[in-house]
Hints:
Layout: H1 15-19, H2 23-30, E1 36-40, H3 43-60, H4 68-72, H5 84-88, H6 91-99, E2 107-111, H7 112-117, H8 119-129, E3 141-144, E4 149-152, H9 177-198
Parallel strand pairs: 1-2
Antiparallel strand pairs: 3-4
Amino acid sequence: xxxxxxxxxxxxxxxxxxxxxxxxxxxxxxxxxxxxxxxxxxxxxxxxxxxxxxxxxxxxxxxxxxxxxxxxxxxxxxxxxxxxxxxxxxxxxxxxxxxxxxxxxxxxxxxxxxxxxxxxxxxxxxxxxxxxxxxxxxxxxxxxxxxxxxxxxxxxxxxxxxxxxxxxxxxxxxxxxxxxxxxxxxxxxxxxxxxxxxxxxxxx
Length: 204
């Protein structure tokens, strides 16, 4: 972590932190009062997005790819829990290691799906959590029709738009409704455990 002046807030991120068991203890050893922010998405949406990224990367390298259904379902038709992105999406299993080290009030849970659809609302929550003045407003966002999500804008200057890289906003593959239902049924009890753990619910 870089040094910060008293009037500064330093943010560092990595998706690997959440699922790596020894990380909470190491972070606490560095800063026990740190503010933690966890961004979560609907596990099924996250699973499809993860698959899409992996598939596209393999295609670029000329490597063979399996369909989404072949990847997330085992040969007997059950959900393939051997597939790492499925295990990663069992949020309660990872979060319990963090809550064994940090109190719940040091952790803000951000709705990743809402962050895409309505970034202003979620970022306002982040400002409050970090005890920052509320300076972000609607003029700082512009919906990019091509990418299908919001980009950051410096005030009203359209030349200042900064969007996520071209690897974001990929078209997701079509997924059969029966497969989606099976995945939703699989994740439902795990989601309930997560809701109970954090004291808030999502529309998953």
